[in-house]
Structure formats: C-alpha cells, structure tokens
C-alpha cells in the first residue's frame, strides 16, 4: 500500500534523520575528490552517478565536497515517493522518471534542471535493475546536457546489506567508511549511438571497479 500524506512525511523525516546521524557518527576516508571539487569551484554543474544500493551515504558525500543544488532522478514506482521525501530533508530536489531508454518525462525534467545550473544525480541501475548494470539513459543525459558524469560510491564496515534486488548498504552508526570519487566522464554532443554504447560499457566497468575497491578497502584492517 502506498504511503501517503503525513505518515509518509513522518517516516521520510525519520529515515533522513537516521542517515544523517549515521553519516556524522562515522570515521571517514575520502579519495579522489580533488577533480570534482575543482569542477564545482569553477561553477561547472556535474552529473553524479552511483549504484542504487549505495544511495544511503551519497547525500553526505555530496555535501562534503561543497555541493549546494542538486536534482535526483527518482522513479515513479511507489517506493520513489518515499525516497524523494527522504532526500528532500538532505536538500535534494526530485525529478520523477527513469534511466531506461524512452523515459522522456524524466529526461526532460533533468535537462530543465541542468539549464538552471543545478547538479544532477542518477542511479543508472535504477529503479529495478539489473543490479549494477548501467542503463544507457545516463550517457544520453550527459550527452544532451553537456554535464560530466562523476561516479561516486561508498563502503562501510560494519554495515547491513539488505536482501533487496539492489543489495542496499546501510552502515552501522560509528562504522568506518570510505568515499571514492572517480574522474569525470565527458560525453560530446555529437557522440553517435555506437560510441554511446561504448561509453555506457566503460562507465559500468568503472563503477563496478570503484565499488569493488571501496569494499576491499573496508576489508583491510
């Protein structure tokens, strides 16, 4: 049953509060943030890309680098309303849509947001997977908007890993954590369909390797 009204807002506020408390209680290590900090300092909006299962700490990671204005693409699935309400407490705006091909509504909303100078955020394997498989919509969005794709991920130990389709990761309060930023990926406006597919594969490989490295760092003592 879809959560509505005051109950949804209360639960979203609670979820956002738990995430904020958890993030601020953790001991963080951050790598690779210099290039994205330079882009933001130059006034260049960015397109954040992160796996659906690594959503929990991304708002905190974005805030750490001085991010101010961001719109996140959230599905029109019933879970999306709750996620949008929770992200609003972090200062994220929401555009409803999908990363799948033909998701015209979401693409138009994100392009409008990009024209206002907002950063964009997207889970390229959302809203329902396959897990850690990049849909081509994120590369198309980068091509049309002119924004560089900036992959980001986190890992933590100890953490819960849910049995959901995305393997959602929720750190324990006080856990050790790592945030990894990757180099920006630019997509030229004139990029053709074949090159878009190559870039999609490249982005997927980079994001998988990035999360695997973050997990490996947390396994080290």
Protein model, in words:
This protein is of the alpha/beta class and 221 residues long. Helices cover 43% and strands 22% of the residues. It has helices at 5-25, 34-41, 58-64, 78-88, 104-115, 137-145, 193-219, and strands spanning 27-31, 47-49, 70-74, 92-96, 119-122, 149-161, 169-181. Strands 1-7-6-2-5-3-4 form a 7-stranded mixed sheet, sandwiched between helices. The longest helix has 27 residues, at 193-219.
Q: Tell me the structural class.
A: alpha/beta
Total number of helical segments? 7
Mean pLDDT: 88
Largest beta sheet: strand ordering: 1-7-6-2-5-3-4
How many strands in all? 7
Approximately how much beta-strand content do the residues carry? Answer: 15-25%
Major sheet attributes: 7 strands, mixed
Which shape, going by the Cα principal axes? globular
Write the layout of secondary structure elements.
Elements: H1 5-25, E1 27-31, H2 34-41, E2 47-49, H3 58-64, E3 70-74, H4 78-88, E4 92-96, H5 104-115, E5 119-122, H6 137-145, E6 149-161, E7 169-181, H7 193-219
Parallel strand pairs: 1-7, 2-5, 2-6, 3-4, 3-5
Antiparallel strand pairs: 6-7
Helix pairs in contact: 1-4, 5-6
């Amino acid at each position: 049953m879809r959560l509505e009204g005051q109950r949804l807002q209360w639960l979203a506020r609670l979820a956002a509060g738990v995430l904020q408390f958890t993030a601020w209680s953790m001991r963080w290590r951050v790598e690779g943030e210099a290039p994205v900090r330079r882009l933001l300092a130059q006034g260049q909006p960015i397109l954040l890309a992160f796996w659906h299962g690594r959503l929990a700490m991304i708002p905190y990671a974005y805030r750490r680098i001085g991010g101010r204005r961001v719109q996140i693409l959230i599905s029109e699935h019933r879970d999306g309303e709750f996620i949008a309400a929770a992200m609003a407490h972090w200062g994220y705006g929401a555009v409803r849509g999908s990363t799948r091909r033909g998701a015209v509504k979401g693409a138009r909303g994100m392009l409008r947001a990009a024209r206002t100078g907002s950063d964009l955020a997207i889970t390229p394997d959302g809203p329902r997977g396959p897990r850690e498989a990049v849909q081509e919509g994120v590369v198309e969005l980068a091509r049309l908007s002119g924004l560089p794709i900036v992959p980001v991920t986190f890992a933590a130990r100890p953490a819960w890993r849910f049995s959901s389709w995305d393997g959602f990761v929720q750190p324990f309060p006080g856990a050790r954590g790592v945030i990894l930023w990757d180099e920006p990926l630019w997509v030229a406006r004139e990029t053709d369909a074949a090159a878009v597919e190559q870039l999609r594969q490249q982005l997927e490989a980079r994001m998988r390797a990035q999360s695997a490295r973050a997990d490996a760092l947390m396994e080290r003592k």
